[in-house]
Amino acid sequence: MKTIANVSEVNTNLSNKKNKKIKENRVFNIVNIIFLTVFTIIIIYPIWNIVVKSFSSPDTISHVGLRLWPEEFSLVNYKLVFNDPTIWNSFLISILKTVVGVVTHVLLTAMVAYGMSKQNLIGRNFYTILGVGTMFFSGGMIPTYLLMRSLGLLDSFWVYIIPSLFSYYDMLILMNFFREIPNSLEESAKIDGAGVWTIFSRIVLPLSTPVLATIALFNGVYQWNDYMTAKLYISNEALYPIQMKLYEIIVQTQAAANMQSTTSVVIPTTSESIQLATIVIATVPIVLVYPFLQKYFISGMMIGAVKE
Amino acid sequence: MKNNHFGKGFRAQLPLQMMVIPGIIFMIVFCYIPIYGIVIAFKSYSVTDTIASAPWVGLENFKIAFEDKFFWESVVNTLAISFLKLLIGFTAPIILSILIFELKNGWFKKVVQTISYLPHFLSWIVVGGMLLSWLSTSGILNDILVGVGILDQPRNFMIEAKSYWFIAVLSDVWKEVGWGTIIYLATMSGIDPTYYEAAKIDGASKLQQIFHITLPLMKFIISLMFILAVGGILGSNLDQTLVLINPLNSSHAEVINSYVYKVGLAQGDFSYATAVGLAVSIVSLILVVITNHFTKKMNDNKSVF
Fold first, then answer.
1. How confident is the model at residue B302 (pLDDT cuts 50, 70, 90)?
2. In the prediction, which pLDDT does B4 show?
3. Closest approach of B212 to chain A, Cα-based (Å)
4. Which of B45, B184, B200, B247 has the largest CB neighbor count within 10 A?
5. Which domain holds residue A103?
6. Are B114 and A253 in contact (CB < 8 Å)?
7. Are A198 and A84 within one domain?
8. Mean pLDDT over the full length of chain A
9. Which GO terms describe its biological process (chain B) (predicted)?
10. Which of A40, A143, A243 shows the shortest C-beta gap to B123?
């Protein structure tokens, strides 16, 4: 009798402890969900706030507050942007630079990667040392600038394309992927008389679309977002990509705003309107490819981890 | 004889070699020629010279940097911003990834992840433009601060030099914290779930599980990321600085990279700017070696433990 009582006592003790644990975990989960909800709002709402502002009429832009929807929906800001031919031009330059840049980068890098994927390639060790060196050393801003100058790439559209034709990191990723392709496929094509180029273009590339897409997407985001190339090497405004154009708009708006707050000159709000609408326009392509990007995050992160 | 053999083999591989050689030429031209160009740090280069013909001046450019007040100002700013980034920007993704990991798989987890990765893909120009709008006198930050009663009237944060370090660090954290979780989440998904099951049976709470299972198993990846972060300490983000800097906040905003840009490309003092850049890369390399040494020790201790 006594022992049975003891056992049940222990049991209730245990279940009390268990209940306490479950309660603790429930509290943890609730706090966690609340915290992450607040975090998510802090990330997304400021972006949405800009979108709301960009669709507000110029009079209401300065008191949008924490609205979720424009007080007075208006397309005036966008009309201002679309009436500016230089912004159109920059948008086209960005599209051109991204499309040409991605296609050439992927093709050249894949071509080199295919050659490097062959273990018996003569000089392969030397090529590898040369390539690994590029991952650790660089000449820095000024020597690179001098190189671009002597190559005649200053103020040329090709400065967006040629210096980013090839990347050793991307090469490594592609090379590792090509190695996974079964050798028998290539062998049978060889017996049928196919040369290296035919095998590369008809067999290797079509079988590698996922990894090619990954490289293309990340390179595309780089090309679209890059303004540093223009800032460093381009002074002709006709060649500015949208990001560089936006940079200029921001600098001008900022200068005006700072003057306004230090002196008391009132400046028309059109520059802020243009800035907001241009930000949204420059971001739309990124948002459009975002679902595809997300599909390839992990492999992309591995590129990033090596790179930084 | 051997050479001949090599030539023969090479010729047989010619199509394959033709695929690789463009890449090799690319790397020599766009990476190794600029590395050679670093010699102008020890020369007095002017626009009319070639790199080879410019006269040698030894360590003169480094001496000038040593006495340059504005260079040291940029060093202080870089260190301050990088230190704060290390403190907040390095720990935040670790905490966030643990919290996300603790969520049960479901739509909420997906939403949190999708949204938190997004800012990484926006350019610094776009984020800079947004930031200027949020921080302007009519922006959301002032709306909130005035609304809650912390401020009596809106302040223009962008012209206050003293706010700049925090603006730079917090905006960087906002942009990259979500993206930073990916590598930790990938590591955590590789942890054997039986550890957690065993801990649950032993009655470990969630917090105990985090501190006694998740974190110790992430030690290696955390120290790896830490070494990488330390390597970047002197290389504060140039994109970010160029968008956010203005004449009123430059005393706190100028970092080494933007100073190199200003002196080198805006003022044309190529040799001096190259010398500053070189000095910074050498110090960065030393920092990485030292950090690597210490984290190695830490990981050894772990295996003893």
1. very low
2. 64
3. 16
4. B45
5. 77-307
6. no
7. yes
8. 86
9. transmembrane transport
10. A243
Of the ranges A133-142, B6-15, B48-57, B173-182, which is most confident? B173-182
What is the pLDDT confidence band of residue A36, given thresholds at 50, 70 and 90? very high
- CA distances to A294, B45, B46, B49 from B53, rounded to whole Å, are 51, 9, 10, 6
Q: Which chain A residues are closer than 8 Å to B118 by Cβ?
A: 43-44, 47, 290
Poorest-pLDDT segment among A46-55, A260-269, B57-66, B216-225: A260-269
| A180 CB-near residues (< 8 Å, 6+ apart) | none
pLDDT, one tens digit per residue, over A256-290 is: 777 776 665 555 557 788 899 999 999 999 999 88
* Cα A153 from Cα A162, distance rounded (Å): 9
Q: Do the chains contact at A139 and B260, CB–CB below 8 Å?
A: no
Query: Does residue A110 lie in a domain region?
Result: yes
The number of distinct structural domains making up chain A is 2
Q: Does A146 touch chain B (CB under 8 A)?
A: yes
A163 Cβ contact list (under 8 Å, min separation 6): A148, A153, A229, B30
**Alpha carbon distances (Å) from A153 to A78, A161, A223, A233, B187:** 34, 10, 17, 8, 43
In this prediction the ipTM stands at: 0.87
Q: Is residue A68 part of a domain?
A: no
CATH number, domain at A129? Answer: 1.10.3720.10
Residue A140 to residue B277, Cβ atoms within 8 A: yes
**Backbone phi and psi for residue A73, each to the nearest 5 degrees, phi listed first:** -65, 130
- Residue B52 touches chain A, beta carbons under 8 Å: no
Say if A278 falls within a structural domain.
Answer: yes
Q: In sequence order, what DSSP letters do the residues of A74-132 get, joined into one string?
A: --HHHHHHHT-HHHHHHHHHHHHHHHHHHHHHHHHHHHHHHHHT-TT-TTHHHHHHHHH
Tell me whether residues A227 and B112 touch, CB distance under 8 A.
no
Residues in chain B within 8 Å Cβ distance of A18: 203
Read off the pLDDT of residues A192-246 as tens digits, 9 standing for 90 and up: 888 899 999 999 999 998 889 889 998 999 999 999 999 999 999 999 999 999 9
